[in-house]
Amino acid sequence: MRKIILSVIGILLIVLSFLFAKKLIADKHKPKPVKEKVVKTVFTDTVLNGTVQIIIPANGSLVAKRRIELYAEVQGVFKTGSKLFKPGQKYNQDENLIRIDASEHYASVQSSKSNLYNTIAAIMPDLRLDFPEVYQKWQDYLNSFDLSKTTPELPKMTSDKENYFITGRGIVSSYYNVKNLERRLSKYNIKAPFSGILTEALVTEGSLIRSGQKLGEFIDTSVYEMEVALSKSYASLLKVGEAVVLSNLDRTETYKGNVARVNGSIDAATQTITAYIDVKDDTLKEGMYLEARLNAKEEQDVIEIDRNLLLETNEIFIVRDSLLDVIPAKPVYFSDTKVVLKNIPNGTIILKKPVPGAFAGMLVKPFENSVKKADK
Fold first, then answer.
1. Multidrug resistance protein MdtA-like barrel-sandwich hybrid domain: from which residue to which, for each copy (predicted)?
2. pLDDT at residue 71 above 90?
3. Which structural domain range is residue 71 located in?
4. Is the pTM of this model over 0.85?
5. What per-residue confidence (pLDDT) applies to 26?
């Protein structure tokens, strides 16, 4: 029995060895599979150099072009007016912003004016006798004198004798004392120098105001300006009056402005120059953040492409005989998404969109061949 089992095992080993050898021979003569070449389809453009308008992006916050800080020059109680002194309150030009109780000072003014009138009236008999030629003009001055109105200017003195006589009676000094008091009386009423809106109110009606105290801030809402800092390389390109297009951050609204001023010096720390842009619009508010696009200059014989098409070595891919190659390029301006290039020959076929894993010598197939030229 043992011999039979051993014989069967031997026969099986011989058969398996034969089959394995036959398979090895068959695999040896089987041709190896040929790898299929992968040809990537790419989007291309044909270069046509032209003129590109360089647009400088800038941003900043709006501030009112005309603004004043309100300070008290006199002391007194804040009197209630026709409008509440609150932030957001609008006032027209020459309308009272703040009225301070001036009854005590007003009485002093009236007393000084009365003293001046009495002093002039006391010298009238002497003028009739000693200076009859000037008597009438001083009489006319007294007739026009009204305690309820601003003190009129003294008559012009025509001779040294008249001047000595009038000055010696203390009339000139009394006159200027009255004018000084009247000038101070006007400070009890603070009027709006222009039509605008109150943005800050630090006092309320009925409170005691002290001399030198800040009362609030008042701005003109008809025109705003935005301060932007630009590279010093554009210092010679910015022009006063240059039109500027501004937009909000969402770019849903656009506004028209113009360059109002350009600083004459360059910031030594940042090497930037400051420009100020005026903009008018009823929907604008102080503090709004806007983006501006300034037309700087025009570059000749250039093209504009996406920034991601320019390699770190300042080279770009071109298509030559269905193969990718690289050529040097000279970038002259970078924006957020675009780059302006020089030294790219006309007729050169370049990539329109980046190709993942691209390398020089890569086999490609152009999908579309359009003309790539500068925007005029």
1. 68-216
2. yes
3. 66-101+188-219
4. no
5. 62
